[in-house]
Design brief:
Order of helices and strands: HHEEEHHHHHHHH
Number of strands: 3
Number of helices: 10
Radius of gyration: 23 Å
Distance between the termini: 53 Å
Helix content: 55-70%
Largest sheet: 3 strands, antiparallel
Strand order of the largest sheet: 1-2-3
Structural class: mainly alpha
Shape: globular
């Protein structure tokens, strides 16, 4: 909201100058700020997931379910219900913006302002887009190319969302897949059994690595290789952590904790 207000304020300020030069400057500044709004929204999503899921993590102490970080606070307190609602309307549907919203924007089915505001409250916009698609599915032309006559604002958002990735097939929605990966891994926070949690993390990391190897989503070969290396290191780290947890669990059961 603040960024959108800044964009509009700069537009009004630039309108006071000469029409030709100021209009061009106004247009450039708008595109830069729009791009910045998209980038900020993408990169802060991981932080929102951590904060929300941390606030909702509970543990059982003496038969009572309490907040993991404060044993005096019972689980599902009034303030936690706010986080639950926030999870339902923001955290869970957010990745769909980079898939459904991106597709609608690319074919000019929605205005760029609507797309930007969907980053504030994704759920109602996702529902609106899905209903719109279901009502008139034939209006969606299946193509990987950006349609002609697309406004520069739309192109700026498309570049911010899909910049480093290929534009063919499902790979063009890779940003949404990355956000879903963050969400899936974060959901393991709610698993209390450590070996099970680490096993799921290992399986997910392995699947993500295989998915990347098959799709090769980046335009640049070097980027694909670097991402492959990063994901493989993540798989190795997850396997080491899983092995340590299993060994420790086995020794505890045998009465010889390490």
């Amino acid at each position: 909201v603040i960024m959108y207000g800044v964009v509009q304020s700069i537009k009004q300020f630039l309108k006071r100058g000469s029409h030709s030069n100021m209009s061009k400057a106004q247009h450039i500044v708008s595109l830069i700020l729009i791009n910045g709004m998209v980038e900020i929204s993408k990169y802060t999503y991981g932080g929102f997931i951590t904060v929300v899921f941390t606030a909702l993590t509970c543990a059982t102490v003496d038969g009572d379910s309490v907040w993991f970080y404060d044993g005096n606070e019972h689980c599902l307190s009034n303030w936690q219900w706010g986080y639950i609602i926030y999870t339902l309307v923001y955290v869970l549907p957010f990745p769909a913006i980079s898939i459904i919203g991106f597709r609608c924007l690319k074919i000019q089915r929605i205005h760029y302002v609507e797309f930007l505001f969907s980053y504030l409250l994704p759920f109602p916009f996702i529902v609106k887009w899905i209903i719109s698609i279901l009502k008139s599915p034939k209006k969606i032309k299946v193509t990987n190319k950006v349609q002609s006559g697309v406004p520069d604002e739309n192109l700026a958002i498309i570049e911010a969302v899909n910049g480093p990735f290929k534009s063919a097939g499902l790979v063009q929605y890779w940003e949404g897949f990355i956000e879903y990966k963050k969400l899936i891994l974060s959901l393991t926070l709610f698993i209390k059994n450590m070996p099970v949690k680490l096993l799921l993390c290992f399986v997910f990391c392995l699947l993500f690595s295989v998915h990347h190897l098959i799709c090769q989503p980046f335009k640049e070969t070097c980027s694909n290789r670097c991402e492959t290396l990063s994901l493989n290191l993540l798989v190795i780290s997850a396997s080491v952590s899983l092995s340590k947890a299993l060994i420790q669990e086995y020794n505890i059961k045998e009465g010889n904790p390490l």
